[in-house]
Amino acid sequence: MTDQIDNSNYEKDLDKILRLSRYAYRTYRINTVLDQDLKKTKRPVYEEMLCLYLSLLYVTIETYKEFKISDLIIDYLIGDKYNNYLDELRLLRNSIFHPNKDFNDNREINYYKSNGKVTNWAFIVDGEINRYIAFFPEINNQYDKAIEYKQLLRRMNSWIPIKDLPIKAIKVKKNIYNLTKKAIMDNPEKISIYIELLKSQSEIIDNEVIKIYRKLLE
To answer: Cys-Cys with 89: which of 58, 128, 177, 196 at CB 3.0–4.6 Å?
Structure first.
């Protein structure tokens, strides 16, 4: 993992990430309702929650870009290669949060014609933004601030975004995830174990994740 933000501006950047976490948390809350609806058969309710979830996710992505935050994986996923997906999400957001003149809005219809590709991409982007929020100090080599930061996230949102992160698909990062969760939830003094694991990782891991996503999304 490499520095994405100047460490000398950590406190200023921390404020940005905390504000971003508010948008991410709202998206997460709707996603929990969506998960509940997926277990039911009331498809119209499911579709409404999906549209709302994706619309809030677009606002989260918009905030990420507005704050000029940079992460190798996220920047790839919302970069030029997937501009059309991002634009479909933007149009869907506009159709949900702005009055529609027609009952059958083409912006929503076009989204449903994407055969789930945009949705799959959206879930991945959401997970990676949560991953960045969860590991913000570690990504920026501020390991000594990791526990305090995550406790602050919990106080702000009653939530730490380390559940079902996409990095669990990578074996070494799965170990980091498990150790992180245990250290934060059960035994904070063991934080040094996963810090050493994080320090041993490099940009190669992030590039490997990008390769996996490229295959999944094509």
So the answer is: 58
